[in-house]
Amino acid sequence: MKKSALWAFMLMLVMALFLTACNNDNSTTDKEKEKGKDDSTKTSETAKSGVVTFGTDQAPEGVYDPAYSGSIVDSYIQDFTMEGIYSVNDELEYIPNFAKWEISEDKLTYTFTFEKGVKWHNGEELTVDDWVFALETVADPDYDGPRFNYVEGVKGAKAKKLGKAETIEGIEVVDPYTVKITFEEVEVNNLEKLWSYPMPKKHYEGIAVKDLGESKQVRETPVGLGAFKVKKVVEGEYSELERFDDYWKGKPQLDGIIVKTIDPSLTAGAFQNGEIDIMDIKPQAVKELSALDNVRIEETNGVSYSYIGLRFGHRDKATLTNVADFDKFKSKELRQALLYAINRPAMIDAFLEGKAEVANTVIPRTFWTAAEESELNQYEYNPEKAKELLKAAGYVDKDGDGFVEDPSGQPFKISFGHYAGPAAFEGRSQAIIQAWNDVGVKTEQATGTLIEFNLYNDMKDNDDAALEAFFGAWVTGADPDPSGLWGNDAEWNYGRYVDATNQKLIKQALSEEAFDKDKRKKTYVEWQKYFNEELPALPLWENIDLYAINNRLQGVHVNAVGFQTDVHKWSIKE
Q1: Measured torsion, CA atoms of residues 188, 191, 193, 199, in degrees rounded to the nearest 10
Q2: Of 244, 299, 242, 236, whose CA–CA distance to 263 is shortest?
Q3: C-alpha neighbours within 13 Å on the C-beta side of residue 303
Q4: Where are the alpha helices (DSSP H) in 398-486?
Q5: At what angle are helices 344-352 and 3-17 packed, to 10 degrees?
Q6: Are 135 and 196 in contact, with CB atoms under 8 Å apart?
Q7: Residue 48's pLDDT is what?
Q8: Below-50 pLDDT ranges, the chain
Q9: Of 125, 137, 343, 351, which sits most exposed with the smallest number of CB within 10 A?
Q10: What values do phi and psi take at 240, rounded to 5?
């Protein structure tokens, strides 16, 4: 199919089905919210209790402990039911939640003091033992969740993970409300990288770490610290949350919250009929929802981006390292050609209704560390430039079939993967495949079809050979440090990119000199320029976060990291 015809087809497809790419692309994320303590829980005369419904177009996986979850929908539920030691304000600064901290003169030891009287949903009081239990669990050799990178900086955590120690050396419990955490080395964001969610130790008592992620306590009867607690779950349909009267910041104003799975094509009708009160929405739903008298639309520049990952190797799970042993994308010119071949503005218009911005870096514009566009290669759509780069790198069509061979003369083909979801996902997957085929790089869809989302994540985790290139997206959280996603040995560095300069700059931006913000930004800009030149992954766009809110729902505060700040203050205005 010729390119012009393909784009016309995709535009009609998207308009006809009224669906679009997932606003957050179901990315794994750890979202912390600003939850400053508030002793005032009185409602106004017009503010009422009751139950509100949060809509989502994907069913939760049903994992209710943050240490084990990977689904954005599960994280939404957790943000109603769970809390961490710190939270994040509108300026993306980390601030105390139920713990305060002091930093030692050598910047290696943090002393945390917990608020007294904070209750778990089962009535037990929160102590530092619950947090220590969480840190020890995440560092356990039998822990099979995806959060070890949030603990590995603590002194002795790697030794425990590798089975060389029984406990984490850098943890010292002083009393039930005080604990000292010592890190391996001074890094400017040791606090931000530290796992913040305690686990209810008594609730999990007697369960082996290897069994914890699949346990009833994690998946059916969770116990949290948040304003709401899980009451009932109907798999694939809805989760019912009820008010936790002993919530430490004061009794929540709502009686409960329903998290309901709906067909995204029915969003407008659901809002109009009062079936949904709040939902993060697709860009193409904005026009229809804006016409409703009972709905307001809020949008913000968030901390998410979409990209194409490229395979460079595999992860050695025994040593927790990434090994670069796959050379298909070794040529920088090839990688640059692949990005020049993609018409990113056209894709944003076709699949995101313009509600995104082209990205040339993987640090979103929201962050103070983001490089100016003038400092980055723009990679504007230029298929002829792509062909020139391919030819210069030795990728030429030697047999006349319209597709290039590699520099050694062997057939060259890319297997590209994309996960399943709304109908437009098929369109954008085919747009990328077609763009690369158009410049002579033969590309086929991995497995021949879009891949179920959870299976897709498993394939990435296990370096499946079918995913040579793959569509991905991240919601970064509030910390601009990219080491957890792009560090040489990062677990979530799914392309397994390993590069000495990459690691040097990432470490430099976290070193003691980085306590000077100007120096830290300068290093991050240098890292972004290097990433932008080398392209170990292909940045596509930054999403604009969109929320539809029923006017009867009051107290919702939207910022760059989400919409669930101080949910105990949510109320209904009749």
Answers
A1: 170
A2: 236
A3: 26
A4: 424-438, 453-461, 483-486
A5: 20
A6: no
A7: 66
A8: 1-45
A9: 125
A10: -105, 125
Nearest to 177 by CA among 120, 86, 115: 115
Identity at 547, one-letter amino acid code? Y
- Give first-to-last CA distance, the chain, whole Å: 54
CB 128 within 8 A of CB 109: no
Angle made by CA atoms 145, 151, 157, in degrees to the nearest 5: 105
- pTM score: 0.77
Return the DSSP state at 439.
T
> Among positive and negative, which fits the CA dihedral 389, 391, 392, 393?
positive
Secondary structure (3-state) at 44: coil
- Identify the pLDDT of residue 129: 98
Q: In a 3-state reduction of DSSP, which class is residue 298?
A: strand
Largest CA-CA distance found in the chain, in angstroms, rounded? 78
Q: CA 79 to CA 31: how far, in whole Å? A: 8
The DSSP code for 377 is -
In terms of Cβ atoms closer than 10 Å to its own Cβ (0-12, 13-18, 19+), residue 470 is buried
Residue 12 token pair: 């009609």
CB 182 within 8 A of CB 109: yes
Q: Alpha-carbon distance 570 to 561, whole Å?
A: 18
- The helix/strand/coil state of 229 is strand
Q: How far apart are CA 523 and CA 502, in angstroms?
A: 11
Q: What pLDDT is recorded for position 47?
A: 55
What's the pLDDT score for residue 31? 34
Residues 6+ apart with CB under 8 A from 349: none
